[in-house]
Amino acid sequence: MQIIRFFLLIASGIIILSCSSTKKIDNEIQEQFYSLSRKANVNLHSVESFLKNLSQLPIRQREDSLIKYMSKGWMPAYNFQFKEVSYTYKNAKGKKYKISFWVSPDYLSIGTNQNFVRMPLTPQTAQKLADQFHSVLPTTKMVNKIYEKATIKLSPIPLTENRDSLSTFVKHHFLIQQQLKYNIPNGIVAGIKKDVVQSNAVLSNPKPNRVAIYGWHKLDGKPIQPLYTGHVDWYVDYSHGIRLVYEKMLINNQVFFVKDVLNNSELSRSICDEGNCRFMRYNN
C-alpha cells in the first residue's frame, strides 16, 4: 500500500525524483545565495543614514526603496546561511515521518554583516523577497518548530510608543543587538520578533487585505502573539519580522516543495497545525 501511495505522489508531481539529501539542499542553498552576496554593489555610508532618509516617506515609497536595495543583495550575508530544522512527525494513524526544512537564521535585515538593521516589512514586500530568494513564508507550526530548535533564545522586548515608526524599528534592532552583545548569531536566533506567516486565516477573514502574524515566544516557550489577522496588510510595526523558509524540504529523505506538502492532505499536518492547511501567498 505504501509503495502504491509513493508512486501516486510521484505521478502527481509532488516528489522530486533525484538523489536528494540534506547535503544536496545545503549545497543548492549555498550556490543560490553565494552569488547574491557577491554581486551586492551598494555604495551607501551607513544603514542608519539610509533609513533616516526614508523616515519621512509614505510606507509604499519606503518599501519600494527597501526592496530595491535588498533585492540587489544589500543584506547581511549571514541572513542566507540557512539552517536545518528537523523533527519527527507522527500522523493520526501513528505513522512517523522525518521532517527537515531550512530557514534563515535570523529575521531579514538591510545592510551588511558589519552594519545592518533588522527590517519589519509589509507582507507584500516580504512575499516579493521570498519569491526572489526561492523561499516561502513560514506557517505557525514552522514558527514553533523553529523556536524549539533555535540555538539562541532571547527574551522579547516590547515597546509601546511610535510602534510603526522607522526610528522605533531601529531602536528595537539595537536593543536586540545589546542582548546579543553585538555579535552575529551563530545559529538560529528566536524570541525577538513576531513572524509574518502564511495562513488561510487571511483568506477566511471576512475583512479583505489582512496580514497574519504569530509568535514572539517568551523564554517559557509560549508565544506572546497568537495567530492574528486583525491588521490590514499595509500595517507594519517594530515587532514584525520576516523569516524565510527555503522552498524545498525533506520528508523521509525525499525532496518536496513546501507548497506541495501544504496542498497534500496526507502530509500537510507535518508542517501546519491549522484547521485548513493549504499553501497561500500574499498578493504583490
Q: How would you portray this structure in words?
A:
- The chain has 284 residues and is α+β, with helices and mostly antiparallel strands.
- It has one domain.
- It is built from 9 helices and 14 strands.
- Strand 13 (245-251) and strand 14 (254-257) form a beta hairpin.
- Helix 4 (59-71) runs parallel beside helix 5.
- The longest helix is centred in the first third of the chain and has 18 residues, at 22-39.
- The chain is globular, with a radius of gyration of 19 Å.
- This is Lipoprotein.
- It comes from Aureibaculum marinum.
**Rough outline:** globular
Low-confidence stretches: 6-19
Structural class: alpha+beta
Mean pLDDT, to the nearest integer, reads 91
The separation of the N and C termini measures 42 Å
Keywords:
284 residues, alpha+beta, 6-stranded antiparallel sheet, 4-stranded mixed sheet, 20% strand
Record the SSE blueprint.
Elements: H1 2-11, E1 15-16, H2 22-39, H3 47-54, H4 59-71, E2 83-90, E3 96-103, E4 109-111, E5 116-118, H5 123-132, E6 135-136, H6 140-149, E7 152-153, H7 166-179, E8 189-190, E9 194-196, H8 201-204, E10 213-217, E11 223-228, E12 240-241, E13 245-251, E14 254-257, H9 258-262
Parallel strand pairs: 7-8, 9-12
Antiparallel strand pairs: 1-14, 2-3, 3-13, 4-5, 6-13, 9-10, 10-11, 13-14
